[in-house]
Write a structure and sequence with these properties.
It is a single chain. By secondary structure, the protein is α/β, with parallel strands linked by helices. Helix content is 35%, strand content 17%. It is built from 14 helices and 15 strands. The N terminus is likely disordered.
Length: 423
């Protein structure tokens, strides 16, 4: 059994003692925590890995919390990481942020407590597992993984190395969304009818022609564990990689990671999953393309196109629209929803996902979107994709996390990764 990583507060204390012995003793107002900013010894030091479109939003969320001191920015695109450094330095009023093109150099730093990962999906687990091994707590954007086995590997690493691991399914910190899910789960809308998740399409093979690699892009590092292919700017621009199978599960895992996570919460199946998954013809089923059946007979559907989740009971429905922070709409019909609301409380009171993660880093308690929840949500997305890719019904064992008696389907549980990026 590997040794337990050093406790963050102890690690910071020892680090600062060593620094004091080797340098002049100067105390600044910021070090003492002037204003509402905590003293340096109380701050959580962070490295940001992936500084593109999504990464810039994640970074902004952490920089808004005075407990965070961001020490490093990493990206395969030198222009992006330079912009991130400017943002970080401007926030902290110094020039201390270090740029990295290789995340391994960042996670080896002993003065970094946590990492936030906002890379393309195929990089999430290889980075997160290595970060856990280096004793870092992890905030990883959704979906947790490119594959089912990858998602489980992330859980295993977090538990083995006793790391706090938050997945970026932000609606776990959305009180209205959590309340709506709990209300449905507790029978507040009457008997169960169905849940329907709307996403856009599944991922597909990529056949872009080759183009020259720009000098500011490390294309080999962008590909990492994915199969080699020539550069094309669409894949490296914004979220252009999402529709392609080597890097993502498409819309199913992108917005679906948020929405299936809420479906799991409303079903009370956060630590298990369905037992059957069946691809459907959308033209014959009002846009529904996949049906999931749970062991107790309850049905969950995925519809395309869409960007929403609907909970339907015998006395009303709840409709949640958009992905990262849902707009909750209620249709109570015969139910006096407001009266019912007074008798129910949230299972927890998080309303800021980044802050909830930082709270957990301090308390060592599980965060609102613990890695196990992210694993189960990603798994539902993946088994739906696999059923559609194969074009036939599949039986699923949620305890063993494998398909029942289907070698071809089980082939998709994981992917080969290029060296040295296996997990």
């Amino acid at each position: 059994m590997p040794s337990k990583p050093t406790d963050p507060s102890r690690r910071q204390f020892l680090r600062k003692v060593a620094a004091t012995a080797a340098a002049p003793y100067v105390i600044t107002s910021s070090a003492l925590g002037a204003g509402d900013r905590p003293a340096a010894s109380q701050r959580i030091t962070m490295g940001m890995i992936g500084t593109g479109m999504r990464g810039s939003h994640v970074l902004a969320g952490f920089l808004a919390d005075p407990r965070t001191q961001c020490l490093a920015a990493c990206d395969v695109d030198s222009q992006r990481r330079a912009r991130a450094k400017q943002t970080i330095d401007a926030k902290h009023g110094n020039t201390d942020c270090t740029e990295y093109g290789d995340f391994r150099e960042l996670i080896r730093r002993t003065d970094v407590d946590v990492v936030a990962i906002a890379t393309p999906d195929h990089w999430h687990v290889p980075i997160a597992v290595r970060a856990c091994k280096q004793g870092k707590d992890v905030y990883c954007e959704k979906p947790l993984s490119l594959t089912i086995r990858g998602a489980r590997a992330a859980v295993t690493a977090a538990r083995r190395y006793e790391r706090v691991f938050q997945v970026g399914t932000q609606n776990r910190s959305n009180p209205a969304a959590v309340f709506g899910c709990n209300l449905f789960r507790e029978g507040g809308l009457g008997g169960y009818r169905y849940i329907e998740v709307g996403t856009w399409g599944i991922s597909r093979p990529c056949n872009f022609p080759a183009e020259p690699v720009p000098p500011h892009v490390d294309w080999e590092m962008f590909l990492g564990p994915a199969p080699w292919r020539p550069f094309h700017p669409v894949l490296q621009r914004g979220k252009g990689w999402i529709p392609y199978r080597d890097y993502s599960g498409g819309g199913t895992t992108d917005v679906g990671a948020h929405l299936f996570d809420l479906a799991q919460l409303a079903l009370g199946t956060e630590h298990t999953g369905p037992v059957e998954v069946t691809p459907l013809d959308p033209a014959k089923h009002n846009g529904r393309c996949v049906a999931f059946r749970y062991a107790d007979g309850r049905m969950l559907y995925r519809r395309t196109p869409g960007n929403d989740v609907k909970f339907v009971g015998t006395r009303g429905s709840i409709h949640m629209v958009t992905c990262a922070w849902v707009d909750v709409r209620y249709d109570p019909k015969e139910l006096a929803l407001e009266a019912a609301a007074g008798d129910r409380t949230l299972s927890y009171s998080s309303n800021n996902h980044a802050a909830n993660f930082l709270d957990s880093v301090g308390s060592r308690k599980k965060p609102a979107a613990d890695v196990e929840l992210g694993c189960r949500a990603a798994t539902i997305c993946h088994i739906g994709n696999i059923a559609q890719w194969l074009g036939r019904p599949l039986r699923w064992n949620p305890e063993k996390e494998e398909f029942v008696g289907d070698e071809q389907a089980n082939h998709w549980l994981d992917r080969a990764r290029r060296e040295p990026w296996d997990v």
